[in-house]
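Hi team,

As requested, here is the filled-out complex form for the flavin-adenine dinucleotide run. I kept the field names the same as last time so the parser does not choke. Let me know if anything looks off before we queue the next batch.

— J.
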Amino acid sequence: MTFDFIIIGAGHNGLACAAYLSKAGAKVLVLERSMQVGGGCSTVESTLPGFKHNICSVVHTHIPTSPVYRDLELERHGVRYVYPEHLRGTIFPDHKSIVMYREPERMADELSKFSARDARTFRKLVEDYGEFIDLTYLPLMYSPPLPPSTQSAELEKSEEGRTLLQWQASTPVKLLDELFESEEVKVHFLSRMTVLGFAPDQFGQGWICLFRILKAEAPICVGGSQQLALGLRRVVEAHGGVVQTGTEVKRILLRGNRAVGIELKDGTRAEATMAVVTNLEPKKSFLGLVGEEFLPASFATRVKNYHSNGRSLFVLHLALSEPPRYRAAADNPPVNLAFSQEMFGGSVAEQVRAYQEIAMGRPPRNEMLQITLPTLFDPSQAPAGKHTAVVWQYAPYRVETGGAAGWKSIREEYAAHLLDLWRSYAPNITKDKILAMTIQDPTDTEQHNDNFVNGVDVVGDMTPDQMGYFRPFAGWSSYRTPVDGLYMCGGYCHPGGGVHAGAGHNAAAAIVDDYKLKKWWG
Ligand SMILES: Cc1cc2nc3c(=O)[nH]c(=O)nc-3n(C[C@H](O)[C@H](O)[C@H](O)COP(=O)(O)OP(=O)(O)OC[C@H]3O[C@@H](n4cnc5c(N)ncnc54)[C@H](O)[C@@H]3O)c2cc1C
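And here is what came back:
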């Protein structure tokens, strides 16, 4: 078998890269170990027939507005999104709540219930930074990362930019303390900021945090997250590409310092006349498939030091006979209609403490809960009148007693505890309303897809040393590698984990450039 390009892994990034290259006229082969394409975009009937559960990603914040959706005509290829009007509801232990809206005025009105000053601050932030975020955020995601000096030089020119540079160096908690006075408003925004795994007291995240304050969206892929991957697969195949599932790549074949093909687990070989592209996280790609002996020592050291030690998620997938009705809705009815409900306690200090507990291997007993009901907006994901719910609680990968294996002895009790916590907010979710449930502890997530090392959902910690120009490694953020003809295209590259296909898009641009193919987009 001979192809121009071989892509290892059919996560949405691998498929997006393959789709761009196929559309550029190249002969492309995508190899996927699992029987299904999608990786972190995976939808499975894991409880009862007809109940479609999104095992990993549920919401694709950036996809519908991304160049990928437009360039690859994903809507024409069957990928459709619905947009809940009420985005998220943060519910506090006293059953007061804040609902998140995409319209800034509506959002400010919601904040004014807690603090008129905070509502004014929010309006001023939108005025000062809204346009800047709109103009820069997506372009920065869908292009290779800028060197820190270029970014800083640009920002140093204005007062707003200089403020951003300081916030960049700050922590989410310090930024919130600087901006807002109401504890509820801070808790509401803090739970948004930590969604990519940042600890609340971690330095160096301010910039992205501002995006999380000012921008809100919750697009849900109709039919389940996997439909995005299936749509991308259709684009690849429509342009002559081949996607093979149930096919594990064992080795990347080298001739001298050039990647020339792959070998499968069963010994079959395929040749790549131009390049091999890997969707797999660095240790598997370079230490596993290439081999340390073929890498420059300094690069191999960087690969070994790539880290995935942040928090993980403890997940419950439920089949429900009715949706939850929150006590908070008595005061704020749209809470019941929000795409997700977030219960993170009543103070910033509790969130900081919960992260500290997680770092010590203790699954938090307090709520760090996010509940999502895709079926409120896309009824096709469950039988008529029924619902699916996903319950996320932030948790460690290794527990204090027993490490990763320790989960097996505590998961049933922990699941029951979380359901009790949830029920204290939504009393109608009694046992009889739960038709079936599957428990997915952090080790199950890794077993489902070992790209999520230690259950870290963003394919390697998104800490300042592994973001932007430093993702995955300083000097190697251009999707190229020290092996000629070997490229990187996964969430371990800029702009990082999450479903946005940024890495697949940017890798394709680098490859098209290097091989002088027709860059038909942009
Ligand atoms: C519980 C959970 C919830 C999440 N929720 C969200 C969310 O709501 N929104 C969001 O944006 N993001 C979410 N994420 C993160 C998101 O799912 C991932 O960051 C993203 O899917 C990574 O995509 P990728 O294409 O880079 O890699 P992956 O999707 O991991 O793809 C890699 C692929 O490579 C395959 N593979 C591995 N080894 C081999 C081999 N040897 N040969 C062939 N194939 C191989 C794997 O099977 C996999 O399909 C969540 C993640 C988790 C774990």
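Two things worth flagging: Residues 103-215 form one domain. The pocket of flavin-adenine dinucleotide is lined by residues 8-14, 31-34, 39-41, 56-60, 248-249, 279-280, 313, 315, 445, 449, 451-452, 457-459, 490-491, 497-499 (CB under 6 Å).

Thanks,
J.
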